[in-house]
Amino acid sequence: MANPVSRAAQLILEALQSGRPLVYIHSSEEHRVARLLEEVSRTAPAAAPLPVWTWTLTEGLRQNGEAAAGTEDPRRALDCIVAGAGPGIFHLKDFHEPLRQSAEVRRRLRDVYESCLDRGRFVAISSPVRAIPEEIERSILFLDLRPPDMVELRDFIRDEARAMTANGAPADADLDQVARALQGLTLDETRYALRRALAAGQTLGPAALPALLEEKRLLVNRSGVIEYIYTGTSLDEVGGLETLKKWLIERRKLFDMRDSLSSEIVPKGLLMMGIPGCGKSLCVKAIASAFQLPLYRIDMIEIFSGRHGRPEGVFVQACRMLEDMAPAVLWFDEIEMGLTSAESGNEQGRIFAFFLTWMQEKTRGLFVAATANRIDLLPAEMIRKGRFDEVFFVDLPLPGEMIEIFRIHLARRGVDTTGFQFEEMVKFTAGWTGAEIEQCVVSALTRARLEDRAVTQHDLITIAAKQVPLSRTMKEQINHIRGWAFERAIRASPQGR
């Protein structure tokens, strides 16, 4: 059985098979482009592998270490290509500068097009800059090289492991796990991540994942608008919300089978709206853990800051980048503050219009988890069926859920709850949010530590009696939120009020 071909290699191979003599590959990864061209030269339909020539402004045309004299000059390099007889692939690195500066070079490249047509000779220009002169725009095929896919990553990691370790390549299962963890990185970034893991004394397998993910976190966070969020939160650490949990467990099964299902039933994401402090953000982290996927958050404040370029372009680029990192969970926190109706006509409205289309057409391996507090600001287009799979309303916890939340926060802090009467505590915390319960536990624990003793139920009740909950100070707003969500969302808890 033939080895699978990567997405990038297939694109380049199809360009060559179509007979196109000129290809412009938009990428900053010169070594990767060279690797792909070498691969394509061996798989192209020809009697023998095509020779690959490489041109740079400093070294001219070279093939197998041999240089063509005087070809450092761009015009003479093109003359050499035209004068050649046999088939071959010519990789011109950073050739956008000569094209931009010289009308003579642009004219000669058009001659190259005529000379190489239907002769098995192909010119591939690689550059991190998209700069195609108008004169040759219709004669050249533009390829935007996306980050490597699983096939390309597996091959690269296998080769690197053989070169860097005495044990050779890891087993296929470990290889898949490592490649999946590094999706979205360039090959150079992948190489440094592998070296980081090996420097920490790890073998390339499950034990190396923390080091690999830490390197990925540093690389992803440098964008300034995308944040990699480490999460160890499980669904068991979320108190209550059983309806939401059941829905997630069912959708996780479908998400795992996404490659064998039609795109209509592959989960796209969910929107959680409701009262602040009731666990929406915690649920997002639990979703990533339950789906066993990395979690990324788009920072809309940074996008609209203007520090990274025009917000519209930065947002589109961030969404495309995250598609390259799929499978993953993408978190939009307080989505109503960053995305408003397209009817506004401004840049924020155009971003919203793109987001609506993107939600329906994005790659099936990206699950979007959005949270909202000011739900009255959400446009109708956002919450209609087809954008998100479901819209959940997260209300104040029910009495049974409050007991579960108390138990979770006390157990997380190592408190022995033997003898605690949680039903009694609920009487003092009626109408509290989960965040307020957590803060009550923290305050009680702080008081006990200052007095060098164990925390007691009396500490919790004493602090609870002095605290005014959000449901009392913002009663009108909470009632408004509940009224708005009554017929627009499914309650995350199994029973209403």
Describe the structure.
With about 500 residues, the protein is an alpha/beta fold. It folds into four domains: about 5-145, P-loop containing nucleotide triphosphate hydrolases (Rossmann fold); about 150-220; about 235-395, 3-Layer(aba) Sandwich (Rossmann fold), CATH 3.40.50.300; about 400-465, Helicase, Ruva Protein, domain 3, CATH 1.10.8.60. It has helices at about 5-15, 30-45, 75-85, 95-100, 105-115, 150-165, 170-180, 185-200, 210-220, 240-255, 280-290, 300-305, 310-325, 335-340, 345-360, 380-385, 400-410, 420-430, 435-450, 455-465, 470-475, 475-485, and strands at about 20-25, 50-55, 60-65, 65, 90-95, 120-125, 140-145, 225-230, 270-275, 295-300, 330, 365-370, 390-395, 490. The strands form two sheets. A seven-stranded mixed β-sheet has the order 4-3-2-5-6-1-7, with helices on both faces. Helix 8 (about 185-200) packs across helix 9 (about 210-220).
